[in-house]
Design goal:
Layout lengths: L4 H6 L6 H12 L12 H11 L2 H9 L14 H7 L3 H9 L14 H8 L2 H9 L14 H8 L2 H9 L14 H7 L3 H9 L14 H7 L3 H6 L4
Helix pairs in contact: 3-4, 3-5, 5-6, 5-7, 6-8, 7-8, 7-9, 8-10, 9-10, 9-11, 11-12, 11-13
Length: about 230
């Protein structure tokens, strides 16, 4: 069945619950992971990170493994920690001076991955270490967009606290409020409204955040969160 072009283009026309999740899952999936049989310390560091073995990661770093080693799809140990939501491992790697802005080959950054997984403390640590909030991946989505659309309210709050514009307009003039409302994330909508999100902004189809929520079957949730 062919989906309407606007759905493919915006991802917010009917906003199927799986449509957004699929986008980033495609980007940060574990395809082409480092082979566990590769004896190099750099490869073994990536394996240990993927397995969440914090002490083994420390041992490998102490023995000279590169903290910024990358697997065939460009993931560093820090990226892997972020996509898996492993805050303890992420902190170890940040403290070991991992580069917090190295993207995967799909242009996904550690901050995007952490914003998607919803680990607010890890998002805060990345920001404190200099993670940039402005990069976009190959789907033209940023860390704030992923946090808003996933309903990761605490992570989004940290991003806003770091200076992200609550009313920034992303691809197709979609705002964070539009993403959160369209996905039915009431707490995230409340946060954005409290932070000064404008309710009358329109995307390039002329739709407001409430229009999008209503069209996605989330009108009642949006109203309950204070969006009209």
């Amino acid at each position: 069945m062919n989906r309407p072009a606007s759905l493919l283009r915006h991802g917010l026309q009917s906003l199927m619950p799986w449509a957004f999740a699929l986008a980033l899952a495609t980007l940060i999936g574990d395809a082409a992971g480092q082979a566990e049989t590769d004896p190099s310390p750099h490869a073994q560091l990536l394996v240990a990170a993927r397995q969440g073995k914090v002490e083994r990661v420390k041992e490998l770093l102490a023995s000279g493994a590169s903290v910024n080693a990358r697997n065939p799809v460009g993931k560093t140990p820090l990226f892997i920690a972020c996509e898996k939501g492993n805050t303890a491992l992420g902190i170890v790697l940040i403290d070991a001076k991992a580069d917090v802005n190295i993207p995967s080959t799909a242009h996904v950054t550690p901050l995007m991955a952490a914003s998607y997984s919803g680990e607010a403390e890890l998002v805060k640590r990345l920001l404190a270490a200099g993670a940039r909030t402005d990069p976009v991946d190959r789907m033209n989505k940023s860390a704030p967009v992923y946090a808003a659309a996933q309903g990761n309210t605490a992570a989004l709050d940290a991003l806003l606290g770091a200076g992200v514009d609550v009313n920034a307009m992303y691809e197709h003039n979609l705002t964070l409020l539009m993403w959160a409302a369209g996905q039915g994330h009431a707490d995230t909508v409340r946060l954005l409204l409290a932070r000064g999100a404008k309710v009358d902004l329109r995307d390039d189809r002329g739709m407001t955040a409430f229009d999008i929520a209503r069209g996605a079957g989330q009108g009642a949730v949006a109203e309950a969160a204070g969006l009209h």
